[in-house]
Structures are given as C-alpha cells and as structure tokens.
Amino acid sequence: MTELLTRLVRKPQGAIGLALLIVLAAACVCGPWFAPYAPEKMDFLGRFRAPGWQHWLGADQFGRDVMSRLLVGTRATIPMALAATLIGSGTGAMIGTASAYLGGRLDEIIMRTIDAVMAIPGLLMALLLVSTLGNGAGNAVLAIAVAFTPSMVRITRAVALSVRHQDYVKVALARGEGAAWIVFREMLPNVMAPIVIEATIRVSFAIMLFATLSFLGLGAQPPASEWGLMVAEARQYMHQAPWVLIAPSAAIALAAIAFNLVGDGLRDALNPKDER
Amino acid sequence: MTPALSIQNYGLDYVTSAGPVEVLRNISLEIAPGEVLGLVGESGSGKSSLAWALMRHLPRNAREISGSLKLSDIDLRQLAPKQLTGVRGRRIGMVFQDPSTALNPTLTIGRQITEALQRHRGLRPREADALAIELLGHVELRNPAAIMRRYPHEISGGEKQRVVIATAFGCRPEVILFDEPTTALDVITGARILDLFARLRTETRVAALYISHDLAMMTRVADRVAVIKHGRVVEQAGAAEIFRAPRAAETRALVAAVPRPERRLIHDTPDETVVLAAKAIGVRYGNRGLFRAAPPPATNAIAFSIRAGEILGLVGESGSGKSSMARALTGLARFSGEISFAGRTLRGAQDMNAAYRRDVQIVFQHPDASLNPRHRVGEILSRPLKLYGGNPADIARMLDQVRLPASYAQRFPHQLSGGEKQRVAIARAFATRPKLVICDEITAPLDVSVQAQIIELLLALRAETGAAYLFITHDLNLIRQIAHRIAVMRRGELVDCLPVEDFDADHVHPYTSELMAASPVPVG
C-alpha cells in the first residue's frame, strides 16, 4: 500500500491529484470549523457583496457567505458522490465477474440486459429513478449508482474474461472449488486494478451528475449548501453577481479534476510492467 | 581481417526503482565474417539484452556503462537515430523468438517482405515482388506466390519463421542476430529451420550471433560458443570442444543438466494394478454452428491406461492434442468416451466427484499463470487442505517436501523465481496425496539446470507417495530418462504407445522415428 502511494506520487499528475484530494478531505472533515460564518446566516445589508476582506468569495442573494457555504457543502457533495460510485462500481464488478465466470447462455442473458440498460443515457436514467423514488439526496445516490453499474459491468467482464482463462482458475475448477470462491477470491482480486482506476475517474462524473440532479431540483433540497444546488440557485443572479455562480462551479470542476488526476496516476502506478 | 561484429568490454545496467541492476559486464566478443557465434545462457543471463543493445533498441531505463559495439568499421553506439535506420535490417538483421508476434497480423506476407526489400535495397515494387517470391522459394516454402497474398494467421508457425528468415537474409546483411529462433516451434519444425539456417549460411557466408539456452542445438549451428552467466562471459571455445571438455564450472553444470535418454533415472517397474483407464476419449472444442461445420476434434478416440506408480510420457508436437487430454482427464474440457478410475466409470465432468478430484491432480506449464498472483503461498497451499481435509499446520511440511523454506508461506508468487513457483504448484498438487498427477509441460519454460532439479524433485515425491504421473512434454530426451512407457500423439491420434526400452526398436511408427531423429543429440 505504501509502495503504491510512493509510485503514485512519483508522477506529477498523481502528486497534484493526491494533494487536491487531501484538501477536499480536509474540507469534508473540518470544513465547518474553518468556515468564517454559519452557512445559513443571512445578512440583508450584505446581499451580493463582492469578494473582499469581509467575504473572501463574496455573498449570495441572502447575504450568506459563499465560502462558508462551499466549505460546509463539501460534506453534502463529495461523500455522496463517493457512495454512489462505490455502490455502482461494486455491483458492476460483481455482476461482470460472475457473468464472465458463468459464460455461455447465462453470460449472454446478463450482458444483453446490461446493454438494454446502457442504451438509456445516464442522466435520463437517474432522472427516471429519482422521479419514481421521490426527491432527496439518498435517492439521487441510488439513481447514480444504478446509472453507473452497466458500464462497470462491461469493463469488469472484459478483464474477467481473460482472467477466466488463466491457469489458476482452471486449477481451482479442477480442484472442485465452488463458484463463490472462484468469483470472489480467485477472479475478483485480479480484476481490481482497472476497476479501481475506472471508479476513481467515475467519482468526478458522479459529482457532476449529482450537481446536475441538484441543479434540476431532484437531488439535495434548499437550504442545503450542496454545490450543484448552489449553482442552480445562483443562476438567476448570474449577471448581478457572477462570483456566486463561479465559486461552486469552480469547486465542482476542481474536485472532478482531482479525482481524474488520481485515476490517471493510479493507472500508471498499478501497472506492474511500469517498473521504471 | 576486421571482424564482422566486435563487442569490446561492454557493460549495461538497468536502472530500476531499487537502484541500478547489473545486466552485462565486460562482454568482449568477436565474430569473424561468415562465422556463427553461439551465445548460451540461462534465462536472465543477459543474452537478449545484448541482442537489443546491438540493434540499438534498449528500454529507456538502460544505462550503458562502458565499451564499444562495432559493426565492421562503424561504431553502433555513435550512430544518430537517422543513421541507425540505414543500418538496422540493411547491415544487421534479426530473427525473433516468436514468429507469431514478429509479423504484423494486418499486413499480407508479401507486403511485409517487399517493404523491407524496397526500403533497404532500393528496389522498385515489381522487382521487389519478384525477389520476394524467389526468396520465399529459397526458404523451401511451397507455392511462394500464394504465400505472398496470405496473412500471417493463414500460415503455420514454422512457415512464419521461414518468412522472417527470408526477410532477414533478403536484405543481405553482414550480421544476423538469431534470438532463440526455434524455441517457440515444435521439435520437428525447429529441426527443419536449423537445416535451412545451415544451408543459407553456407550459401551467403553471413556472420551470425545465435542466442539460445539449448546446448544441444549449439553444436549443430555454431562454430564457436560463448557461455554467459549473470551478464559475464564465463567461457568461450569452439563448438566441438566446449561441451566435450568444459572448463568453467558454469559450463560443466549446464552440460551435466542436459537430459540424456541413455541415463535412466528410474529403475523400478510399476504394479500391474491400473489406476486410471481412458477409453475412446474424444475432445471437441466448439459446436456445429448454423452455417459452419463442426471443427475437427482435438483428440480422437484416445485409449490408454496408467498403472499405479507408473510414469507415462505423452509426447507430440504442438497442436497434437496432448493438453486436450490433460483437460479432459481433469474435467476442464467436455469429452466423449469414458474414464475408469477406482472402480467407477466416468462419462463426463459431472461424474467427477470429490474423491476423483482429490486423487487426480494437475500441474500446469506456466507457474506464473497457475498461481494466483494476489494470494500468498500459504493461502494457495491451504485451499486443497480446506477442501479435502488436512491440517493447516501442514503447510510448512508441504513446503519442506518440495525443498522450500517454511518462511515462503508469507510470500507472494511474484517474489519467487520460476523454479520456486513451479515447486509451489507441485506442492499444491501433492497436498491431497493424489494417486495420479498430470504434468502438462511443466519443465518447458524452465532452464535446463532448474529442469533437472524439478525432475529430481518429482522422482523423490513419487518414491515418497507412490503417485503415478502422466507426463506431457515435447522433450523426447527428457521423457526417455524417466518414463516407463511413452505414448506418441499426432493430430489428435495416438500413433504409438510403447515401453521406453522398445523405442530404439525398428517397429515404431514412422512418425515416432521422425520425432526421435528431430530431437537434438545430447552434447558431451
């Protein structure tokens, strides 16, 4: 694990990504302490105050401090995106590996079903699910997880198919091992590397998808300071006070870039052939 | 006379995260025009690195420490990338180990050979075509004009290697590097490639560096032989004397490890009780499709029996169905026919119960692939114990049985050498005290010296446990040392099944005598 970290940090993209992630994690854990104001503290005299010494990133239409809202909102945004990716990738990995192990007609049935689900765009799928299940952050997480599963299944199955033909799986079969052992202990650990990489990159998509859902009013609900919701609320005052819109948008972009960079770095670090 | 190729005091390091690793040190070799220098060494001794250094195609982490690489008058190390393209292929050719990856699968054979001719000899397309056809005919390919239009996957491995050789010779280089050109081919095809090489070199008087780990092959192809160990040349002498009177200890060890059919390693006779009898086993991959006929069977009605404690050799060229038999016997491939084992008759993989799975074990060719890279050795060895009953504390004893220290239980497979990995795979197979162990080419990827140790271990384990072996191999010399009986397969058919003493007799199948003639005569 430490070896993986050193290899990750050696490449510039890995080091920058990791540094950004640490900043994000710090904001998640102790954002509220750093926040100069309470996130919902209104100040009617300070509406749309431009960024300055009082409010570093300005104030919004209710005079709430944008930076405080961003810092507190990290908790509402990043863990949700992580949870959605984790659930989606985990389910996808298990279905994909099992499908590759089973093979034949069952594999065919599973994969065609996945193809059918994949034909629906991710955002549309999430919208459908949220409108069926009802608004709320929890349901949005579930919706994003479901939207992510099919492509994870495809990626995992492609890797698992090559693992399926490795001799150690044949040895396990010849030894008379059960399906659960072969899928979970023999195959899954060996398909983990591409899943981890893909999942890291997917977190950034999840942040954006989650922000989009909130933007459309289907994710987090006001007065929560979720980043997507902040963008949605700031939209109508865009010309009056662009900083209210720019700050959360930049935060979303930065988080997405951080996860993407770490994903790229991991791809290099997990490649055993890259010993240099 | 200036040598065709001269390497003086050459040193090479690979820089890794753990610091520089010595690859080559103080290498000084000379090849006169028209001479073939054999370079022998175990895997990891730096043979291939030297070939790539001569081709100026080193990995990015390579650091050249010292020395010079001279091709007659020019210093290869001083060449700029642009000058190199005029030397590579034109003045120094290369023939690779695996012909299936040396040819581009998306280009026709004709395109690949004429491209080299146009590039290096400045021929016009039509002249290049004519010359290519002549060259392909010259390497004994039948109907060269038709071969020109084919893609690499449409010709056999031996034919591919002939195409690569024709391309290399066609540009009339001064030196050709051969990097184990017959290792990826089966014995008979490899022997024919060697004959071709011998003919071409007398015709063209080309100088060659012939890299191999196979000592017996060297006496056939090389004028002089250099033995390389850990990146250092330990001995250099004429091909005839180096193996008859090896001076360096390393050479002596290499020569001693070469299998010789006349030096039998087992002397007992097995019981008469039959452990496993196979009747009319047929394996077939793929079914008849809607629009295509069923593919030909991989094995066709094979019948044999193995007695308790017997070593039955199964030989044949690649694609002859040897491994399909192993897969059928372990239930990894669907088969027709029946297997009798311990009083039961099995007609398919679904009949294989726990007792059968416990008593019939398999060891695969590549230990890299047969040991799960994410499991520690201890976990790998504990699985059969958990499935078939056994004390997890036995792992130390199992490791000891295959002469490995007990501390290896904590290691991952990639921390072990190739021979050690194969020992772990063997320990796993013997965990359940099997009655029959199927060894599928288990020594093929190993060096001769490691191979000798593995064979010694297998024989010791047999003496200890009384297990019978089905030993699949393409090395006839090796199997004649250890087998009681040898079965010969060709194209899915069993052509011969003889006690090993009868192998020199004259009533063997013609194919068997062809195999015998093709396998290299042991040196020394």
How many β-strands of chain B, per DSSP? 20
Lateral strand order in the biggest sheet of chain B = 6-7-8-3-9-10
Q: Biggest interface: chains and residue counts?
A: A-B, 19 and 29 residues
Q: Would you list the SSEs of chain A in sequence order as H and E? A: HHHHHHHHHH
Work out the oligomeric state of the chains in this entry: heterodimer
Main β sheet profile of chain B:
6 strands, mixed
Which structural class do you get from the secondary structure elements of chain B?
A: alpha/beta
Total number of β-strand segments of chain A?
A: 0
Radius of gyration of chain B: 25 Å
Mass-distribution shape of chain A: elongated
State the end-to-end distance of chain B: 32 Å
> What is the first-to-last residue Cα distance of chain A?
18 Å
Q: Give the number of helices of chain A.
A: 10
- Please work out how many helical segments of chain B DSSP would assign: 20
Average pLDDT metric of chain A: 84
Overall structural class of chain A, as computed from helix and strand content, comes to mainly alpha
Strand percentage of chain A: under 5%
Helix content of chain B: 25-40%
Q: Topology of this structure?
A:
The complex is a heterodimer of chains A (276) and B (524).
Chain A lengths: L1 H9 L1 H23 L31 H37 L1 H15 L3 H12 L3 H28 L2 H9 L3 H37 L11 H8 L7 H28 L7
Helix pairs in contact in A: 1-10, 2-3, 2-10, 3-4, 3-6, 3-8, 3-10, 4-6, 5-6, 6-8, 8-9, 8-10, 9-10
Chain B lengths: L4 E12 L2 E13 L4 E5 L6 H8 L7 E10 L2 E2 L5 H7 L4 E4 L3 H4 L6 H13 L3 H14 L5 H5 L8 H14 L4 E5 L7 H18 L2 E6 L2 H7 L2 E6 L2 E7 H6 L4 H9 L16 E10 L15 E9 L3 E5 L6 H8 L5 E7 L2 E3 L7 H6 E4 L3 H4 L6 H12 L6 H7 L16 H13 L5 E5 L7 H18 L2 E6 L2 H7 L2 E6 L2 E7 L10 H9 L6
Parallel strand pairs in B: 3-8, 3-9, 6-7, 7-8, 13-18, 13-19, 16-17, 17-18
Antiparallel strand pairs in B: 1-2, 1-4, 4-5, 9-10, 11-12, 11-14, 14-15, 19-20
Helix pairs in contact in B: 4-5, 4-7, 5-7, 7-8, 8-20, 11-18, 15-17, 17-18
